[in-house]
Amino acid sequence: MVVKLTAPYYIHLVPYNIRIWLLSAISACGMLLVGYSSAARDAGGITIKMAGIVLASLSSGGGELSFLGLTHYYGSVSLAAWGSGTGGAGLIGAGAYALLTTTFGLSVRGTLLASALLPLIMMFSFFVVLPHGPLKTAKQNNAQYQVVPGDEEAESPEATGLLSHPNERSISPAYTHNSRLQIITHSLTTKLNRARSLVIPYMLPLFLVYVAEYTINQGVTPTLLFPLESTPFTHFRAFYPTYGAIYQLGVFISRSSLPFIRVRSLYTPSFLQVLNLIGLTAHAMYPFIPTVWFIFAIVFWEGLLGGLVYVSTFAAIREEVPEEDREFSLGATTVSDSAGICLAGFVSIGMEKALCGWQVQHGRDWCRKL
Length: 370
Hints:
This protein is an all-alpha fold. The protein contains 14 helices and no strands. It has helices at about 1-5, 15-35, 45-75, 75-105, 110-115, 120-130, 135-140, 155-160, 165-170, 175-220, 240-255, 265-285, 290-320, 325-360.
């Protein structure tokens, strides 16, 4: 989270081709660590798992920031493709895991270790499939002399003159250091001002929808249970993964809808998501929804809202932010969804426990039977 919060201000120093190599290696290492320690139950094994999860999260956050920045160079179709791909990742990831473990009978460890090969697809996509013409053109356009603010005269031919001695024209190391420091400070100040201008129109609604969305997913849906005889399930543990799959389906559809549907008011679906959180929490405490099928519909609607705000936010940035600020703005705004997920995770730890305890006290102990 800390890395993603600060990365937009310095990640541009690392070229995209090096970035992809690093992110692929970090992702593979994370999967390998989790895979090799999957059967471990001691403190050392748990530490290794946590390290693997941290590496995978680092790769995921850096990848989202980088690839969203890349959409600046490839037009609006690339943003639609990115949204559809990230929406489908949840469905395909869950389906591939179920297929390998259930149909093909691979162990959890074997499945995770096999997944460490997936970053190769990302490298193939970037280095082989993706045309690099727009990136090379942008690099050539940016490869121009940048004058230190307030020092335009010092480097002009008129200022130095033809009579100056070559040694007298050399810049001392201290002056060079101060100039570079001025450039870095000026650049950082400019980017902080840009980021501040993104908060209200783009970052806040994206943050709100993710807080509500992931609090529902992690803190509320584990307690949305019904008597088994009134549902299509035979075990209480089947509720949660089914809710997750339906949610991912909604996300995939809405993130793929950008060429056809655009939301102009980002706050409207964000507030609707908050209402979803309030309504489902109220049902977990005082059940009033008659059947699980209504919950399925609400969870699907939740996924639609979340995906719609995600792609509409970045589409709005592409249309409304000046071109010279667009790449940074796309990356900086990704902080919002990560911050929302992080906050929702902390809230959900206590919320799920509190809702389950409430239900047990009121004669519904199904959450204890998962």
